[in-house]
Amino acid sequence: VEGAICYCRARCGQEGWLALLDLLLRPPDGRDPDYSAACRVLAAEGAALAPLQLLEALSDSMPLYLAHSTLSRMMGALLHRRRQGQVLRALHRAQNLALRAELAQLQSSRVVVSDETLCRGCQRPLGSKVFYRYPSGVVLCGRCTRPEGDSTPAPE
């Protein structure tokens, strides 16, 4: 049994573990099931078994008290992963709501541009020119916001 467990750890996925468990619980040639070996397989570190498929694979004649500790540990790990997913989803939702609130606050702020309003970059009056407002409140004309080396004319 230990050799089969080592083999399953090294080379098998869930199907291999279930096949080994099925071989121990429903042996061919009318032999008696080896419940203690099946419990060792269940408790093996690295056993990749889904709880629902595991319960389906267990024979009806197997006493569940033998596998109680392993099954309860598997269910506890499953519940822990589920709760972690719920917490992570709630954190993402809270972060998304905070960002939406910040965006709404930034979009609701107003900018009044008059003939006397000057560009912060070049100190020229904005008048009817194209301008850009940054979240910090800085207002720049289109020419000042153009990247260095950009040869396309800025819209006026």
TrEMBL record:
Q: Identify the residues that the record assigns to the Vacuolar sorting protein 39/Transforming growth factor beta receptor-associated zinc finger domain, covering every copy.
A: 108-146
Name the Pfam families for this protein.
zf-Vps39_C (PF10367)
Tree of life domain:
Eukaryota
Task: Please name the GO terms of the biological process aspect recorded for this protein, alphabetically.
Answer: autophagy; endosomal vesicle fusion
Coiled-coil region list: none
Annotated Gene Ontology cellular components are: cytoplasm; membrane
Q: What is this protein called?
A: Vacuolar sorting protein 39/Transforming growth factor beta receptor-associated zinc finger domain-containing protein
Give the species this sequence originates from: Astrephomene gubernaculifera
